[in-house]
Amino acid sequence: MSLRFLSWLAATVLSLCAVAQQPPPNSLFIRDVTIIDCDGHAPAFGMSVLISGEWIAAIAPATQMKAPANAQTIDGRNKYLIPGLWNMHVHLGAYPDGKAALPKFLAEGITGVRDMGSPLDDILRLRWETRTGTILGPRMVVAGPIIQGPLPFQMPVFISVKDITAARDTVNMLQRRGVDFIKVQDAIPEDIYQAVATQARIDQMPFVGHIPPTVLPEEASDAGQRSVEHLGGRFWGVLIGMSLRESELHAEEVQMYRDILAAFERKQAPSPSHMRSALTKAIVESYSSQKADALIDRFRKNDTWQCPTLVVLHTLWLDTETKYTPEDLLWADRLLRKETDVVGMMQKAGIGLLAGTDLPADSKNGTLQDELAYLVDAGLTPLQALEAATCNAAKFLGKLKEVGSIQTGKAADLVLLNGNPLENIRNTKRIAAVISRGRLVSLNASPHP
Predict the structure, then answer these.
(1) Quick check: pTM over 0.90?
(2) Is 146 helix (H, G, I), strand (E, B) or coil?
(3) Which of 68, 287, 345, 354 has its CA 20 to 30 A from that of 93?
(4) In this structure, are 43 and 167 located in the same domain?
(5) Mean pLDDT by 10 residues, the chain (449 residues)
(6) Do residues 102 and 122 both lie within one domain?
(7) Phi, psi at residue 209, to the nearest 5°?
(8) Domain check: are 199 and 255 in the same one?
């Protein structure tokens, strides 16, 4: 046996002894289950888990641990226990919408969410009420409104800033209000983007988001952007950085951005030229493996994480109101295949990957489990895909001591499955029970007294 395993076993035995001396009140007991801990160990068969309050109190072989008299027992035979999942890209929106969505996310096995842009007062209220138990919902980390550049309209989900001073003031305001991080999106000039990056660094606030069309991916990474969403967003930032025609295509996208702003000023619908084959074909055909290797190496050195949201990228050309041509759809498919390949390359290179959807709870267009399947299609093993939604998320958020894996002393955020996700990642949809903060919130299998 390895030294690491022996240390883990010793800690488990000590915790079990402590629990045996004083059975905890209001506890849960999962009996005879296979544990996939996402902590580097092989699946552990025939184990039992004792939960006391919000925490995992003990883990031991089922033959060595009995349920306390006051514990609710769940039969884990032929089932698999994984850490609670984190959806690292959601938008809960206004308070009533978010309040309605949170239990739906829990039912999908999602015990943590990273909200990537919602009205400030609403999202702070939702975070507080879930944290205090006023309402039922996953753990939350939040950005508040997205920071954009000058726009001719306002919406509660973003803050439009006119210049560098306003950008810095906005970062300061969000930091004082208590958001967990700052998010930027597409409609932001390069100077305002850099001002946000600088102020976020001064305020010691992580900043994340799209790669705006005004910024190159290597510039975003060097500026300290902590995570890149959607492989850059609808302006295909990551693939632009892997193109032999990077400078030319970047200039084209800057002009597209200006054309979109001009259309907004005229109160007209902007043309989706960034979605047409003229651009997507050029991006795919000019792809360079050497440029890709160089950009991925830069991401690795700068610790720039990626949240690909492949599941939502596959919905972008489903809009029936936009008349996409067969040529548009052909090159859309090829671009999506290239982006999928890039995700696999990033995994092999050691880039931190996160799982997110950018879709509502129980969306017909896909769930977090579908995103995990796309990650497997990209070349990740089922375990690596599962880790993107568990221990990777916890590591990225600086919460690995608390959540992200199944260990004694960690938070009891758990999902019980009716199938082995390491054999088929889609078994993450076969949910038998969900436990959040030690509380049984969803049960599709009868508990045993």
Answers:
(1) yes
(2) strand
(3) 354
(4) no
(5) 42 42 68 97 98 97 93 96 98 98 97 98 98 96 97 93 98 98 96 98 97 97 98 96 98 95 91 94 98 98 98 93 94 98 98 98 95 98 98 98 98 98 98 96 57
(6) yes
(7) 140, -160
(8) yes
